[in-house]
Structures are given as structure tokens and as C-alpha cells.
Amino acid sequence: xxKPFEIVVLSGKxxxxxxxxxxxxALLAENAVITDCDVDAADLHxxxxxxxxxxxxxxxxxxxxxxxxxxxxxxxxxxxxRFEAIEFKNNxxxxxxxxxxGCGLCKEVCPVGAVNILKYENNRIYFSNSRFGPMVYGKxxxxxxxxxxxxxxxxxxxxxxxxxxxxxYILTDGPPGIGCPVxxxxxxxxxxxxxxxxxxxxxxxxxxLIEMTGRFKTPVLVIINKYDLNKDMTITIENNLKxxxxxxSGKIPYDETMIRSLLEGKTINEFKPHGTxxxxxxxxxxxxx
Length: 289
Ligand code: SF4
Ligand code: SF4
Hints:
Layout: E1 5-11, H1 18-29, E2 32-36, H2 44-48, E3 51-58, E4 61-66, H3 76-80, E5 86-89, E6 92-95, H4 105-109, E7 115-120, E8 123-130, E9 133-139, H5 147-165, E10 169-173, H6 180-186, E11 191-196, H7 200-215, E12 220-225, H8 231-243, E13 247-252, H9 257-263, H10 268-271, H11 276-288
Helix pairs in contact: 1-11, 5-6
The structure holds iron/sulfur cluster (2 copies).
């Protein structure tokens, strides 16, 4: 079996139904490794209820700490730190942890060994089995910022799991927006499914997302969620996308059962298997595969 086909479900912002749609695709895929790369607000596990069999810390970066007992206040390190992270305060030098990039230069130059570089291990990666297959997901620690590296590591583990389980797909609930973690989730993937809503801001966010994915030459399909809440805007989005050569692979109507299924920890295809949304998502999935 060749390399699994990597699908990333993205949206220009949170709250567009991205996670509900990913969960439904996880059910429909039958042979996928599922990942949640929305590490700032991972919630796919709330629907898929995976059983975690292993977890590990992931260090996203390092920070310098000055031992004030040892420091002779020679002034070398604050002069050399190009991030201006070392300040003089209360009669001594200290490192501003938000400014420090953990480059380690201060440790190298300190003549009295007063600087320690500490690894931040606040992030966690979970290995689990869900009712639709193996699932790897992560959570960013409090005040952690480098989520792009965490996303890359989750994807690497998902690829290893897919190889072991001979999965056909890797299905990822991606982070919202167009920042560093989104770039990490798109790089090297085979298909982006962009979920949007028929609003001006939805269209604006979608355009930025399409521009970003275009840089990686990853094909994009679009799903318009709650399309019937603003049919004119839906038509505008469809026409604009046509002009860019991008296909709208499906339109999902507004239905409050989508939220009710979430609250019950079920995919919409389990909660209302004969409903319009379940039918439409099954049709979209068939078209994708
Ligand atoms: S580790 Fe680098 S960025 Fe942090 S305080 Fe030292 S020199 Fe500055
Ligand atoms: S180089 Fe070492 S001794 Fe000098 S100010 Fe920095 S921490 Fe203190």
C-alpha cells in the first residue's frame, strides 16, 4: 500500500462547523488515522471519545534563566542578546521569558556559568483509539506559543501510525486561521477542504486561506456551511470561486441538530443518519474519494 492520502479540514476562523464535518468524514472514511491539529482548542476528541493508551510531553522551546546568586552582573549577556530579553531589575539581571527565544547565546558567553537553559515541556501529545480508528491529537500548554512545531510532530506521529495500520487516509481537523500552525498542517498534505459560511467575513477569511494554500500548491475544495442563511452570499462565493477555478464540493443547510449531535458526542451521521446533512456529507465524501 502506498502513502496515505492526507486530507486537512480548515476554516478561516473557528466556529464554522469544521470539527463536526471532520468527525463525520472520520466515520465515513472507515480506514483513516484521525488527527486534531487545532492544538489551541482541540475538541474533536469530544465527539470521537478516543481511549488514550499513551501520551507524552512535547518541548516546544527553551528559555534562559539567570542564577542571581552566581551572576556577577558583568553585563555581557544583555549586551549580546539580540532579542533584548535580559533586563536589569532589582539590582540584578533577569530574563523576560516572553522575549527570550532560547537561542542559548547568553549561556555560552557567561564567564561564571550563571545561565541555565530550561526546556518548556508544557505541550502534550495523545495516542488513542477512537471508534473510527487510531487518533493522534495534541494540546498546547498554557502560555505556550510555538504550536506549529507541535502540529508538525502530531502529523509525523499520524504518518507513522498510518504506516503501521496500513491506513488509506490521514484526516486532520486543522487549526483555524492562516498562521504558523495552519502552514504546518498544510505542508505536504494532499488536499485541503476549506469550510466557510456565507458571510462577507467568511468570504474574506476563505480568500486568505486559499492564497495561503496556493503557495503550497495543495488542491482546495470548499464546503459552504449554513448556506441557506444567506443564499445571495452563497451564490457570490460560488461565482467568485469559479473564477479562481476552485470547486464547491458541497453546501450544507443550517440545522440545529448539528449542535445537538455535538452536545451528545456524536457525529451528525450517527445522530441523524437519514437527514439532509448526513446525506450531503456522505455525497461529498464519496466525491472526494
Ligand atoms: S537565550 Fe538567547 S534570547 Fe534568551 S536571553 Fe539568552 S541570549 Fe537572549
Ligand atoms: S554574562 Fe553571566 S555574569 Fe554576566 S550578566 Fe550575564 S548572567 Fe550575569
